[in-house]
Amino acid sequence: MIDSPEAKFAIAAVREAGKLVRRVQAEMVTDALTKGDKSPVTVGDFAAQAVVARRLSQAFPGAVLVGEESAADLREEAGAQTLADVVKFVRTVFPDATPDDVCDWIDLGAVDSHDTHWTLDPIDGTKGFLRGDQYAVALAHIKGGKVVLGALGCPELAAGQTPQKGGPGSVLIAAAGQGAYVGSMADGVDDWRQASVSTTADPAQARVLRSVEKGHTNMGQIDYFAEALGIQADPVGMDSQAKYAVLAAGGGEMLLRLISPKMPDYVEKIWDQAAGSIVITEAGGRVTDLDGRPLDFSHGRTLKTNRGVLATNGALHDAALAALKSVGA
């Protein structure tokens, strides 16, 4: 098991943030929530980023966090109610937190990347979160454009690969050259086991993981891709970097993030890929863009030199790249 101070911090951080956003979900996500009302996600994102940023500043003073959120809107009068909700949840962790404290902690993550920094997606898979399906807390440490450590907190996954609502959830932790491990999200539980990708080498037997939302991928090309490889099983739709956890734990063989025709110029954000990519590679898999290039985390907040994402168990990667080329993906 990985025993560095950074790994211990990352595990504790995603566990704590996972519990926090579960509280937000339990209290704010209701059947009466109107379509398009993203307030629970907004509150959860802000609250989790505030807590993780504060914990990071305590554990590693001076550490840089590149987060998804900024507190600018919360500081405006129109954001007063949202801020009040965020503070309420942050106080379940830091009882003495003031609104100014919370905004300041959130803004610890509103900076540009440095040569060495952390990156956080407090609720990856916002629509899954609202639907009660898969979402993840994703935290990674980046040095010199390379991900050196990543943690995924998946509240609705058991053993890193099986959907389970209301269970303790799973944490996956990985560090460069030290492997990947999966354990429980529950505090104080030390049930770590090494995460290993599937050994399936026959493309026809591959299980393909893809986004649920059509706007996040190209469903038609995925179908053509599967046909080109003779894949027998239907693709599995799953929100968030929980897909990466499932692949790393052996519950799938391929993961596709194709270019959506609705967003042809979309560029991946670092917090959407950093933690998941190292978890897969350290579990024995391979992650590249759709052209076979390694993901390059040296360009600030985005993967601007990469195009889409392909992750596999490694054994099927070259075949998958060839199939992507054949279907024009």
TrEMBL record:
Pfam family for this entry, one: Inositol_P
The enzyme's E.C. designation: 3.1.3.7
Keyword field contains Transferase: no
Entry keywords, A to Z: Hydrolase, Magnesium, Metal-binding
Gene that encodes the chain: hisN_2
Taxonomy, superkingdom: Bacteria
BP-aspect Gene Ontology terms: phosphatidylinositol phosphate biosynthetic process; sulfate assimilation
Name of the molecule in the record: 3'(2'),5'-bisphosphate nucleotidase
Family from the record: Belongs to the inositol monophosphatase superfamily.
Reactions catalysed according to its record: adenosine 2',5'-bisphosphate + H2O = AMP + phosphate; 3'-phosphoadenylyl sulfate + H2O = adenosine 5'-phosphosulfate + phosphate; adenosine 3',5'-bisphosphate + H2O = AMP + phosphate
Database matches in Gene3D superfamilies: 3.40.190.80, Fructose-1,6-Bisphosphatase, subunit A, domain 1
SUPFAM superfamilies per the UniProt record, alphabetical: Carbohydrate phosphatase
A GO term, aspect molecular function: 3'(2'),5'-bisphosphate nucleotidase activity
Cofactors: Mg(2+)
Binding site for Mg(2+): 68, 121, 123-124, 272
